[in-house]
């Protein structure tokens, strides 16, 4: 996990941590505690322990409070509770479903599409989503220090066709603001870069992450700012999330959302329609609706393409066009997302 230094106390040997960092450090990291906090029956523990061994659990309190207790089918719980199905290894489900290892010219950088590159700005996440396509990603090999970032920055400087830098991870906002401000400053000094895009779940999982330090460097950069949030269900959007989105928009950030279509969580027309409406109330536009990437451990979330296309066709009858997310799949080797 990235260092958690934000503000130094006047006493030289003491450090004060930002609220979001304290919350992250205190996140639930074992399935027994999660089950106990939500009053789940002990019958869930063996499966949760199995899944946890494959991909460790992480659930902060700010997210936990939105999960209904005594309900193993709660749509937020199902995104974070490990289950025994994660040990299944059906054909076609692999550890690198998007073949990102084939598109890493330098450490910490992925270049798949024309005009933009993705930077692994942090290996940490505020929450471990069970369907994560990077649950097996070799973060230890892709977490550059400032000195090592120079190779990636040189790569961006040398390619004048690049206009957009995407901060990803892990979750880029799990890095401290001092590190992020430095990285963004380096990026904005590259003349041909126009946009900064940040893919993050942190303003949703821990809304307090949208603090003055974050807003300061976001507001200051010359780059156009786009933040792509990751919200799969309307229940994830409480007043604290709406307030965080408002602060981001006031700092000049364009807010988009991408969701993953997940079996038993949001695979119904009514759920998807409610999500789009709730997103717009929060000042966020729906962007993509991804089918599940075939990552090992996530097959039980899959919704077949034909069923997904039927859902979206029916969704068109309930929403205006500007609230319709685009149904897509990411296919290795393609030059863009593939619409379905």
Descriptive terms for the model:
alpha/beta; two-stranded antiparallel sheet; 31% helix; single chain; globular; nine-stranded mixed β-sheet; 12 helices; 340 residues; TIM Barrel; disordered N terminus; 2 domains
Structure description:
With 340 residues, the chain is an alpha/beta fold. It folds into two domains: 7-87, no CATH class; 100-339, TIM Barrel (Alpha-Beta Barrel), CATH 3.20.20.70. The chain has twelve helices and eleven strands. The strands form two sheets. Strands 3-4-5-6-7-8-9-10-11 form a nine-stranded mixed sheet. The chain has a two-stranded antiparallel sheet with strand order 1-2. The longest helix has 13 residues, at 146-158. The radius of gyration is 20 Å and the shape is globular. Residues 1-15 have low confidence and may be disordered.
């Amino acid at each position: 996990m990235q260092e958690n230094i934000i503000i130094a106390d006047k006493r030289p040997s003491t450090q004060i941590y930002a609220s979001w960092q304290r919350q992250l450090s205190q996140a639930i990291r074992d399935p027994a505690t999660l089950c106990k906090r939500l009053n789940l029956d002990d019958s869930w523990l063996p499966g949760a322990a199995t899944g946890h061994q494959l991909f460790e659990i992480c659930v902060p309190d700010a997210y936990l409070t939105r999960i209904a207790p005594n309900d193993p089918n709660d749509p937020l719980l199902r995104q974070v509770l490990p289950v025994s199905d994660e040990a299944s290894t059906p054909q076609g489900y692999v550890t690198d479903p998007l073949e990102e290892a084939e598109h890493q010219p330098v450490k910490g950088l992925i270049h798949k599409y024309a005009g933009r590159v993705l930077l692994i700005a942090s290996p940490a996440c505020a929450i471990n989503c069970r369907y994560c396509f990077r649950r097996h990603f070799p973060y230890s090999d892709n977490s550059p220090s400032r000195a090592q970032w120079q190779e990636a920055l040189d790569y961006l400087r040398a390619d004048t066709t690049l206009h957009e830098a995407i901060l990803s991870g892990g979750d880029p906002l799990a890095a401290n603001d001092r590190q992020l401000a430095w990285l963004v400053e380096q990026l904005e000094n590259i003349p041909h870069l126009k946009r900064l895009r940040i893919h993050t779940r942190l303003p949703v999982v821990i809304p307090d992450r949208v603090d003055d330090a974050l807003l300061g460097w976001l507001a200051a950069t010359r780059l156009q700012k786009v933040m792509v949030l990751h919200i799969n269900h309307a229940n994830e959007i409480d007043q604290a999330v709406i307030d965080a989105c408002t602060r981001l928009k006031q700092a000049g950030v364009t807010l988009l959302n991408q969701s993953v279509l997940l079996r038993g969580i949001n695979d119904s027309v009514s759920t998807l329609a409610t999500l789009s409406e709730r997103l717009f109330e929060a000042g966020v536009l729906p962007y993509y609706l991804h089918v599940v990437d075939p990552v090992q451990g996530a097959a039980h979330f899959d919704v077949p393409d034909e069923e997904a296309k039927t859902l979206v066709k029916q969704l068109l009858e309930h929403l205006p066009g500007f609230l319709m997310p685009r149904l897509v799949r990411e296919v290795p080797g393609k030059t863009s997302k593939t619409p379905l």
